[in-house]
Amino acid sequence: MSGDALARFLLRVTLGGLILFHGFAKIVRFHDYAPNLMVKAGFPSSLGYLVYVGEVLAPALLVLGLWTRPAALIVAINMAVAVLLVHTHQFMTLTPSGGWALELQCMYFVTALVVALLGAGRFSAGGAGGRWN
């Protein structure tokens, strides 16, 4: 078993799995949150449904290891849009415990970029080879 392959698997599955929690929460409890947020920002409400692509479809693909590189880029874009639409007031803010208020969003964003650069690895449905994996 290769350490590199295991590391890619753990990084990919952890990122996808944790982002999926956010997507499922929006499906179950906040189904109108993203469309309303888009309207508030001056965009068509239909763009809000792209949050399900970034927080359900793309993370599921990451967990499976299919089309890993594009899925990871979608997650990174989703995080950037979330920060710009919801969290801009926290750019220069610390939490009560001294951490950066956007550390979770930053970690998701950077991890998604790393997964996009590394690819899925051997332990994936799509396999280690292939342009998109």
Q: Encode the helix/strand succession as letters.
A: HHHHH
Describe the oligomeric state of these chains in a short phrase. Answer: single chain
Q: Tell me the structural class.
A: mainly alpha
- What shape does the CA trace take? globular
What is the element layout, followed by pairings?
Elements: H1 3-28, H2 33-40, H3 50-64, H4 68-86, H5 103-118
Helix pairs in contact: 1-3, 1-5, 3-4, 4-5
Question: Would you kindly provide a written description of the structure presented here, covering whatever features stand out?
Answer:
The chain is mostly helical and 133 residues long. It has one domain (3-118). The chain is 63% helix and 0% strand. It is globular. The mean pLDDT is 90.
Task: Offer a few descriptive terms.
single chain; 63% helix; 133 residues; mainly alpha
What is shown here, in short?
By secondary structure, the protein is an all-alpha fold. The chain has one domain (3-118). The chain has helices spanning 3-28, 33-40, 50-64, 68-86, 103-118.
